[in-house]
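Quick one: C-alpha cells for this chain, please?
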Amino acid sequence: MTHQAADAPSAGASDAPRRGGLLALGTLPVVAAVLVALNALYLLLVAFGNITDFDTNQAFVHHVLSMDTTNFGQPAGTDLDPHVMWRAITSPILQNILYVLLIAWEAAAGILLAVAVVFWIRERGTGYRVARRLSTIGLLMLLLLFFGGFTVIGGEWFQMWTSTAWNGEDPAFRNSVLALLTVIVIHLPSAHWQDRS
C-alpha cells in the first residue's frame, strides 16, 4: 500500500509541461518565440532596406504625405479633392523627418523583439515573464506602426486608400494581422507561463 502511494504520480503532474526531446519544439513557448523572431527579422530587414535603399521608400512617403495621387488612378496632381487636400504635408524637410522617424521606429521595434527572443531562450522553464512583456511591447510598436501609422493615419487621414500608385494598406493589414496573431499566442493561458525552476 505504501509502495503504491509512493509510485503514484502526483496530482496535476500530467498537466504540467514536459521538458526535453523533439516534442518540446511543438510547445507554446517555442511557437511564440519563433513568431516573435520572425516579426523581429521582418522589421529589421525592412529597416535595413529603408536605410540601404533610402530613395525608394522615400518616394512612397513623399507621395502619401503630399496626397498627389489620391485620385483613383488619375495622373498625379489631377482630380484631387479640395476638401481633403489641406491635410497634405508637402514640405520635403518634414517628409524626410517623418521618414527617418519611421525607420527609427522600425529599427527600435525590431531590436526590442530580437532582445525578446534572447529572453525566450534564457527564461526556459521559468515562466517567460520578461520575454512575454518585451515581446508584447515590441509587437504593440509594430501594430502602432502598421495599423496606426499606415492604415489609420496614412490610409484614412492622408487618403492613401484612394491611390492606386502609392497604396500600402494591404501590406499594412497583413503585418498587423501577423503581429496581432503573435500577441494572442503569447497571451494564451498555459501552464508554461508558470515558473517551474
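Residues 92-122 form the longest helix (31 residues).
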